[in-house]
Amino acid sequence: xxxxxxxxxxxxxxxxxxxxxxxxxxxxxxxxxxxxxxxxxxxxxxxxxxxxxxxxxxxxxxxxxxxxxxxxxxxxxxxxxxxxxxxxxxxxxxxxxxxxxxxxxxxxxxxxxxxxxxxxxxxxxxxxxxxxxxxxxxxxxxxxxxxxxxxxxxxxxxxxxxxxxxxxxxxxxxxxxxxxxxxxxxxxxxxxxxxxxxxxxxxxxxxxxxxxxxxxxxxxxxxxxxxxxxxxxxxxxxxxxxxxxxxxxxxxxxxxxxxxxxxxxxxxxxxxxxxxxxxxxxxxxxxxxxxxxxxxxxxxxxxxxxxxxxxxxxxxxxxxxxxxxxxxxxxxxxxxxxxxxxxxxxxxxxxxxxxxxxxxxxxxxxxxxxxxxxxxxxxxxxxxxxxxxxxxxxxxxxxxxxxxxxxxxxxxxxxxxxxxxxxxxxxxxxxxxxxxxxxxxxxxxxxxxxxxxxxxxxxxxxxxxxxxxxxxxxxxxxxxxxxxxxxxxxxxxxxxxxxxxxxxxxxxxxxxxxxxxxxxxxxxxxxxxxxxxxxxxxxxxxxxxxxxxxxxxxxxxxxxxxxxxxxxxxxxxxxxxxxxxxxxxxxxxxxxxxxxxxxxxxxxxxxxxxxxxxxxxxxxxxxxxxxxxxxxxxxxxxxxxxxxxxxxxxxxxxxxxxxxxxxxxxxxxxxxxx
Length: 674
Known about the structure:
With about 675 residues, this protein is mostly beta strands. It has 4 helices and 49 strands. Helix 1 packs antiparallel against helix 4. The longest helix has about 35 residues.
């Protein structure tokens, strides 16, 4: 009977354990990422009553006789199968679809869990809010941006860190440039200063406004110089090397904006003469005129002296004292020739001397030495364009329509400070076909600037230029050579982008200097596509559709939202619309996850039989992928657990009956002595 009693007891104990396991599974039916367990039984060691015997020549063999001693729990095995994944809507709730485990640190050791109900604490750490354990990261994601600290594997979610602004360094342009479209009337190029001049009282400046009275001038004006530079429509640089062009203009307290326009526009007339002298006839006087557009006649008698001629010339509005020097080879004109030399402000741009001789004093014409005849000062624009003033802005209009490279720059030196145009905006680009483009760009402080550009077909077949026509904001300077990209070529057979003409040597970039950082011009490279391909600009027949598609700058921003992708990358969305990778969540793999030891709270620790953790990231080496905004449910099944409870109850009852029957038999045995 002892065997029956002891076996029954072991059966009660084993099925009690089975019931306990089932109860625990049911208790955790709603525990996040809980892994249920099941009990396995094994027979205890049997007592051998008689051993087996081998067959002999006369008898057969016999089997052993053994008596079992009961049952034991051979194992409680966790079910590590995947639980269902449910959506929670919280972006920091994470579930793993696969065999990996999240790695968290309690400050002393690393623990592992499948429960990913994470949050951000007061120190911006990503943690399990139930325990405070910190989620661990892998790799260097976020370190270069300052989101994560090198050498620290805790994940920082930088709600308190600003993303610095990034200046635009690249602009992508894509689309078609028409191979055949033309305007009904070829456009004439018009440019104007990017600033409108006003008086010190705030009124719009007019041509009669003195430079000294402009709001854009500070100081006391006694003298100064405006230096002009730029390009003619054909791309020829304006140059003071040509004697008839004066690129410098002397300024004094009485100089007006009209004087500046005159300096830009002055036409020397057909004869190119600076001074013309004619005689009224026998016994008459000589008339002296400066230029041919508005002659100012003064009388010089036949017996005039050199001093008389000098005085007469200086009465002309365009010749100041010191601009001419006169000498006479005799006492007066009747005795010899008068030699006029141009000095002062006229010396640099005109032939040195003009000779008035006396060979025919009684005739109707004065004799002038043509070789040394003085030449008029030609305007800076050389007749190819006209300067005017409109609403305080200096406007330059080409004399003829068509493709044009007209551009102008002005620089000031002298007393005080006079604000010069940072550049001349192109209000209308000259040419037969022009495609305008616009895009918002950013400076180093995150300031927004809308760049307006134009792509214009040149006079060379299958060739275009791109120009920066205007840009908003405070601009210090756009250099003449930094706003036009020349000779953008296309294949005439298939319309593909060929690249820039290397003989021109131009670079595909615009360079702008902003007022907040005058020492560091900002270069913006224009990405037009791959040579020989159709991934950027093209040239087909039809409409021009080219646009500025994208740019790489952005303003400063603060972290506003966080999400996690399938690879476990924590992605931050900033207020400036930029998304950045903040960190990569570390995932651990185990060779035998069923051997992990539970540490409570859904956490596990490695055991001697689980193998060491293999640190990796999601979607790598069987770690599985991460679902953001979701949690893994318990894999305990109510139906299975109820069945297990019934089985445990039945087993328990059966073993209890065994003990009762054995007890009854023993009681009957003891009653034999009565």
